[in-house]
């Protein structure tokens, strides 16, 4: 062996020795320093964690009848991640699945694609990393084919799961109050890092509106999990650990299915009747509230829809119909989100404001056919004059000019267009005291606040619209001038006036506010709350729809109580005076014709009609009421947009609701002894009443 060969062998031994040292060191690191980590990884290769979804709780009416419940369904879901790893991106699997389910591959591809700004429905609005349901009404034989031939359907599962169902007891839909469910999005998952996902189940379906959203945490429950042992091919060989899911609680509401169904039916009939008379009635709302507690017995909105449309995916046409104006935006609750001028129903606030400002409660006031507010004549309905009268009679016949005079004189005392440092604005302040211009605090999401226009709002509005008005003041309305030059000239003059001094709180603004017109907006719920306060002696109750959360076995988890109601700053004598006046509206006033023949011997109704003028649209029809008139129990309000006068559309609907509630006109009473249930319903261990 020569020296060169010997040197090479030495180098080789050194290299091999170094490699052995590195290998030994690495083995020591893995087995000693990182041993625990790799033991966990090895264990995970032998186990799989499966989230066990919790059954979502039901939503029940005050007697325990289910408004929303679950049905058991075989659900087929597809894992996008698994499909994306296949050579053909899952095309073959979807083709085989489509043949098994009796649909097309194109339809399945639409259902599993992700929703986006340019993607039409059906599509998947949830997380891309969770199984996507493609069919929730699978025939068991077809589901068995999928489960037994997993090698042909990688990434496809078929499981028995709970799916939302809407039984509509007594014809009660209450769609906007109940809300709906949709899959949790990836953004929401990122915010809830501890939340596990299972697919089409209560774990990743969350409430998007109504009670489903307001009480999502109570309804959802807590998911369980199961850790199973698997072999090298992924087949389950046993269970290592298991934690059962905790079912969600049931929400017991104050809604009465019978009253809710009657309110929805009355609205639909009223809208159809208005259209038959030539009105353009396009939406409506009805509210029934317990005046003592604020509990809502019914809240109906028209047009409505079936919340089951969200279950199992929704088409683009169906989605557009829910949001589009063509179908009347049925997803919107007109009770809590609809905002309309209240017209003469608002006069209860104006009377209280006038009395607090010093006008005598038992005084006599002239009611001419028109009253000049500055240089403009403001008229009664159809210009009718009624002579001199007291405020009782003013409410009964709905005299506007008396209130115009109140508002104009108050406006002058405040300094007119050059107001004092701290103007009193009696009408504005009293309106806010009655809860107008602010959310009621009902336990439902997305409630509108309405609007009470005042000096500050007028300036803000002027600043936002000044550029448009100034442009119109110069250019006019040339297109309108071709067909209606008189109106075009009028609008140009108005634009010029608004451009120059639209920030001023004018006499006409104050006059319009006094009769619930102009820029004022209220929701039907706000108005119902105000009439409940009038009826109960001055407590501005906070509305509530949910009464309690109960366990599946019927045990009460917690009751849902409203905060203490604020008191109206109105003397009890004034409230009693107005209650007496409104009782006369249905006997000899603007609603007497509607309530002619009504069995007032059993239940007398007190109320007020309202007919709100809307620029470019038909009149908004209102009737706000409470009953029985002497010992009020319920406040009932109906609003019909573009329905005509209050006496022609809204009042008949209110009468029909009262007849159904109290069993008048040959009907069977929906309420026992004229009351809602005083106690929570008793439930079986299965959650049934």
Question: What do you see in this structure?
Answer:
- The chain is elongated.
- α17 (455-475) packs across α19 (485-501).
- It starts with a helix and ends in a 27-residue tail after the last helix.
- The chain contains 23 helices and 21 strands.
- Helix content is 38%, strand content 18%.
- Strands 2, 3, 4, 5, 10, 17 and 18 form a seven-stranded mixed beta sheet that branches. Strands 12-11-21-20-19 form a five-stranded antiparallel beta sheet, with helices on both faces. Strands 1-8-9 form a three-stranded antiparallel beta sheet.
- It is of the alpha+beta class and 689 residues long.
Dominant shape: elongated
Distance between the amino and carboxyl termini = 100 Å
Assess the beta-strand content as a share of residues.
Answer: 15-25%
Give the number of DSSP strands. Answer: 21
- Give me the number of helical elements: 23
Q: Give the biggest sheet.
A: 7 strands, mixed
Structural class: alpha+beta
Give the secondary structure arrangement, pairings included.
Blueprint: H1 3-33, H2 35-46, E1 47-52, E2 59-60, E3 66-78, H3 80-84, H4 91-101, H5 105-112, E4 132-135, H6 140-148, E5 156-165, H7 175-178, E6 181-183, H8 186-191, E7 205-207, H9 210-214, H10 216-220, E8 224-230, E9 236-243, E10 250-253, H11 257-276, E11 283-290, E12 296-302, H12 316-323, H13 347-356, E13 365-367, E14 370-373, E15 376-379, E16 387-389, H14 391-397, H15 401-413, H16 426-433, H17 455-475, H18 478-483, H19 485-501, H20 507-514, H21 524-536, E17 546-550, E18 556-559, H22 572-588, E19 606-612, E20 620-627, E21 634-641, H23 646-662
